[in-house]
Amino acid sequence: MADALSIGVNLEAFSQAINAIQALRSSVSRVFDCLKDGMRNKETLEGREKAFIAHFQDKTPLYSQLLQAYKWSNKLQYHAGLASGLLNQQSLKRSANQMGVSAKRRPKAQPTTLVLPPQYVDDVISRIDRMFPEMSIQLSRPNGTSAMLLVTLGKVLKVIVVMRSLFIDRTIVKGYSENVYTEDGKLDIWSKSNYQVFQKVTDHATTALLHYQLPQMPDVVVRSFMTWLRSYIKLFQAPCQRCGKFLQDGLPPTWRDFRTLEAFHDTCRQ
Amino acid sequence: MGVTCVSQMPVAEGKSVQQTVELLTRKLEMLGAEKQGTFCVDCETYHTAASTLGSQGQTGKLMYVMHNSEHPLSCFALFENGPCLIADTNFDVLMVKLKGFFQNAKASKIETRGTRYQYCDFLVKVGTVTMGPSARGISVEVEYGPCVVASDCWSLLLEFLQSFLGGHTPGAPAVFGNRHDTVYGPADTMVQYMELFNKIRKQQQVPVAGIR
């Protein structure tokens, strides 16, 4: 029986030892597992940290866009300053208004050329109509007091001229066979010609109405413009005075010199 | 419709009709023209029926009924030196009804088909003229849209024609001489085509390349 007791005591110690070893082994395997998985754990932790921070970061490119907009507006201001300096060299005002009159001093006489009786405008136009046999001018006032002229030049072209009292505001040049009326029967003052040659002549006519300027005598201006326009009766017959040919890039000489009324190609004029 | 000039391009030496057409179209494309679809002009001939001729033996008149893809809803009927009628496409049906008075010469149906090119304001149509299965020649039509008076822009048209036809530029069409200040119309173009077709019909058949 003493053996059993002593064995029992020994057995106790044994079982304790076994338990201890088991605990040791499991902790060691845990250590190895940790060592094995440890790296991954660290990564996921860092990744999670980054994700957390990014969640609160501002993703809008507001700053870079703001910077671009600032640079652009600075450049715009600089270029506008240069352009206004260049443009102010030539006065582009066509009416007789004086700029820069202070509010205190009212102009004594209103500029009369902007406010003309429609009857006077009609008279001037009908006189010009009778001046040239191959040019016929029809006047209508579909929109208020501003006159709209339909000028027919021989069998070559038709010009729609929009006026503002006796000043020419806009022109559109179309071919003789093209339709100048809208579906309603009103004069179509907006649509361009279908042909490139007449689109070019429209551009030249706009240049001309800006060139012929005399604020105090607008009827002389209209007369000069019509004289210039009349030179287009030979649009398809006149060769270029510079190169002698009829066609350049498929276009006849569309430019008419403002003083001599000679025909030039757009690319041949000085 | 702008002033139009229809002419014939002779087939180049030692080349077939097809090759000459290709040469022309390549020249046009080099000039800067853009292809814009196809076109077709055809012509049918009608004889006045023998039963309607009087006992004095009047010669029968030839009537040409033509169609132009540029005016798809129209039909043109013309006599050689006479008036040109512009009618609806139902005119063809009417001709069937008038079988007793006008007989169709089916063998002389002639047509030209090809591509349209646009260069600035010029519309150029190069077509192969065929009569039945055989190609008989090449037709070149140039229309200058902005101008409607023939006598005004002949020099301009000539300069353009020279730029891509070279030495084969035609003379002024007869219709240009007749109408001095009147507005050009589609009927004038059809008259030119009719004259071109008649000329080609009278010509010998183009020899097939290689056979001498």
TrEMBL record, chain A:
Gene Ontology biological-process annotations: regulation of transcription by RNA polymerase II
Record localization: Nucleus
Pfam families according to UniProt: Med27 (PF11571)
GO terms, molecular function: transcription coactivator activity
InterPro entries registered for this protein in UniProt: Mediator_Med27
Subunit record text: Component of the Mediator complex, which is composed of MED1, MED4, MED6, MED7, MED8, MED9, MED10, MED11, MED12, MED13, MED13L, MED14, MED15, MED16, MED17, MED18, MED19, MED20, MED21, MED22, MED23, MED24, MED25, MED26, MED27, MED29, MED30, MED31, CCNC, CDK8 and CDC2L6/CDK11. The MED12, MED13, CCNC and CDK8 subunits form a distinct module termed the CDK8 module. Mediator containing the CDK8 module is less active than Mediator lacking this module in supporting transcriptional activation.
Residue ranges crossing the lipid bilayer per the database entry: none
GO cellular component, one term: mediator complex
Protein name: Mediator of RNA polymerase II transcription subunit 27
Keyword Acetylation belongs to the record: no
Entry keyword set: Nucleus, Transcription, Transcription regulation
Top-rank taxon, per record: Eukaryota
Family label: Belongs to the Mediator complex subunit 27 family.
UniProtKB/TrEMBL annotation, chain B:
Thylakoid listed as a keyword: no
GO molecular function, one term: transcription coactivator activity
Subcellular location(s) of the protein: Nucleus
Similarity field: Belongs to the Mediator complex subunit 20 family.
Quaternary structure and partners: Component of the Mediator complex, which is composed of MED1, MED4, MED6, MED7, MED8, MED9, MED10, MED11, MED12, MED13, MED13L, MED14, MED15, MED16, MED17, MED18, MED19, MED20, MED21, MED22, MED23, MED24, MED25, MED26, MED27, MED29, MED30, MED31, CCNC, CDK8 and CDC2L6/CDK11. The MED12, MED13, CCNC and CDK8 subunits form a distinct module termed the CDK8 module. Mediator containing the CDK8 module is less active than Mediator lacking this module in supporting transcriptional activation.
GO annotations of cellular component type: mediator complex
A Pfam family assignment: Med20
Entry keyword annotation includes Transcription: yes
One GO biological process term: regulation of transcription by RNA polymerase II
Name of the protein in question: Mediator of RNA polymerase II transcription subunit 20
Record function comment: Component of the Mediator complex, a coactivator involved in the regulated transcription of nearly all RNA polymerase II-dependent genes. Mediator functions as a bridge to convey information from gene-specific regulatory proteins to the basal RNA polymerase II transcription machinery. Mediator is recruited to promoters by direct interactions with regulatory proteins and serves as a scaffold for the assembly of a functional preinitiation complex with RNA polymerase II and the general transcription factors.
Domain of life: Eukaryota
Location (main, coarse): nucleus
Keywords, comma-separated and alphabetical: Activator, Nucleus, Transcription, Transcription regulation
